[in-house]
Amino acid sequence: MTQETKTLQQLKEMVGTEYDRALFSDLLRKLSNEELLDFEDYITKCRARCAEYLRNCRSRLRELNTTALHLRSEFKKASERAKDVMTEINSFFMKVFKDPKAAQENSLAYEQENGLEPTSNILKTQPDAFGVLNGFSLLGYTFGPEKTEAQHVAVRSNYAEMRKRLDEAKENMHYIRIVFKGA
Predict the structure, then answer these.
(1) Along the 183 residues of the chain, how does pLDDT read in single tens digits?
(2) Per-domain residue ranges for the chain?
(3) In 3D, which of 55, 39, 46 has the Cα closest to residue 4?
(4) Is the whole-model pTM more than 0.70?
């Protein structure tokens, strides 16, 4: 290997890194015409590789932006589904119980201990196990058309299905958050 070939190697190693301009210029002056052409060809190939890499990066960035927009849209849909189901659940408790918040807390506590299906069954068959039903109360008894309507609402409702839809929406939101944090 001649001195000129070592010079060309040094120049090639300097391309794409931080380098001393004076040293780079000095090395360029030491090259023969043939080595200058080789170096120019090397630089051209480096530029082409960099341009291709940049195109690939831009393409990947467009893909990631599209995915992010899709995920944002899916998150919004899941959030809206969760909100709609929560409204449905709250409406159910408001139609059935005099104190919907207390009844909902009681049913959630029961659900924690016994599971979703037993809770749903009791809400259908014995909703007063979780709180006082809407209607007229006298001496601990509730009666009147409001109680009858509350019982009908309880029987027609499917609390388990509502809770499953809520949990599914929350789970989707959770996974989308994980994807965003990882991106």
Answers:
(1) 445 567 767 777 777 667 777 888 888 888 888 888 888 898 899 899 999 999 999 999 999 899 889 988 999 999 999 999 999 888 888 888 889 999 999 999 999 999 989 998 888 888 888 888 876 555 455 544 455 566 667 767 778 888 898 999 999 999 888 887 875
(2) 68-182
(3) 39
(4) no
